[in-house]
Amino acid sequence: MASSTLICDTEQWKDLKAHVDDIKMTHLRELMGDAERCKSMMVEFDGMLLDYSRQLATLETIDKLFKLAEAACLKEKINKMFNGERINSTENRCVLHVALRAPRDADIKCDGKNVVPDVWQVLDKIKEFSERVRSGSWVGATGKALKDVISIGIGGSFLGPLFVHTALQTEPEAIECARGRQLRFLANVDPVDVARNITGMNPETTLVVVVSKTFTTAETMLNARTLREWISSALGPKAVAKHMIAVSTNLPLVEKFGIDPNNAFAFWDWVGGRYSVCSAVGVLPLSLQYGFSVVEKY
């Protein structure tokens, strides 16, 4: 397909659209009565069952969807992504969130450099830090263990980690590992929401994670300054270094804010916000709550 061609102008799209108009007249009950169809629309892989038989679709629909994928050069684009080509054309960036979940010995390149060692350097740092906090060897300014975490971020720096946190709250091992701990997420700049987040929290036992790649995101930094004041007024300005950490790449601004750059955890331009949950954006606050081993399994 020529790059200037919109997918909706292809014959495959028009064919699928006409098919959809026809199938809308079919009731799902009728399709569910076809045992062979239902069986063919279930796929099992690695202990996971994908059942899409309860969609208003037939094998013909699936065939047309595959043809549309071919017209869109989907496989070629997937390969380009894994090969580190700059498929994010609007920002001229690689799109390599797959590298965040890669094993240590994988080789995934961006601009000719294997990024996997960098990923594991950050993951190892998160593991070491979260274990220190959870074990009580890293304590707050008054010597008390840090049992509660507030993660400040917005958009992709908050939605994905919150989603995983919600899911892990019903997982038996995660429940046990999180016993006696709290994890809260602050994205809204509404003072009421800020007040709700710190209600019942003790500055002495709270660790704040500020998530901002540039450390300039307006909403995030406003909330970060608010919680910095909350900590400073209770424990003194020097306490900030023991009670606030960062997920950022802008170390000069992190230090200027009052956070020790050694307590900043990196991520990269090739991590898009909506895909960042497996970077330090999600792994750090979730590891503090549930332990690194639980998050590594996820």
Automatic annotation (TrEMBL):
It is an enzyme of class 5 (isomerase). This is Glucose-6-phosphate isomerase. PANTHER family: GLUCOSE-6-PHOSPHATE ISOMERASE. One of its GO terms (biological process) is glycolytic process. Belongs to the GPI family. It comes from the Eukaryota. Keywords: Cytoplasm, Gluconeogenesis, Glycolysis, Isomerase. It comes from Actinidia chinensis var. chinensis. Pathway: Carbohydrate degradation; glycolysis; D-glyceraldehyde 3-phosphate and glycerone phosphate from D-glucose: step 2/4. Its EC number is 5.3.1.9. One of its GO terms (cellular component) is cytosol. It catalyses: alpha-D-glucose 6-phosphate = beta-D-fructose 6-phosphate. InterPro entries: G6P_Isomerase, Phosphoglucose_isomerase_CS, SIS_dom_sf, SIS_PGI_1. The keyword Endoplasmic reticulum does not apply. PROSITE patterns: P_GLUCOSE_ISOMERASE_1 (PS00765), P_GLUCOSE_ISOMERASE_3 (PS51463). Pfam families: PGI (PF00342). GO terms for molecular function: carbohydrate derivative binding; glucose-6-phosphate isomerase activity; monosaccharide binding.
